[in-house]
Specification:
Helices cover about 0% and strands about 45% of the residues.
Length: about 90
């Protein structure tokens, strides 16, 4: 069903210190810094770091929420996604 979706990029497999793409149906997915576990510590990255390409979140005919985006693997002041082993976190909710 309709839900918010998130995938985070992490160096240590922990939420705090990770960087995420979060999508909420009805809005454009954005990049966030995860500075803690409370909502107030999940903050959007500055506008100049909102570099996702073709980002969208939709609910398809089967009722599934689908988020798509393209992200550069190496961006200034962000965790690098490397060829080889990477750690990701995910979450969803409504």
């Amino acid at each position: 069903g309709e839900a918010w979706l998130s995938i985070a990029f992490t160096e240590n497999a922990r939420m705090t210190g990770s960087e995420a793409v979060i999508g909420i149906p009805g809005s454009t997915p954005l990049k966030y810094n995860l500075n803690g576990y409370s909502l107030s510590t999940v903050t959007p990255m500055p506008d100049e770091q909102q570099t996702l390409i073709d980002a969208s979140i939709t609910v398809n005919d089967n009722g599934q929420t689908v988020m798509t985006f393209t992200k550069l693997m190496n961006e200034p002041d962000e965790l690098e996604i490397v060829y080889g082993l990477n750690r990701f976190l995910w979450a969803h909710g409504n």
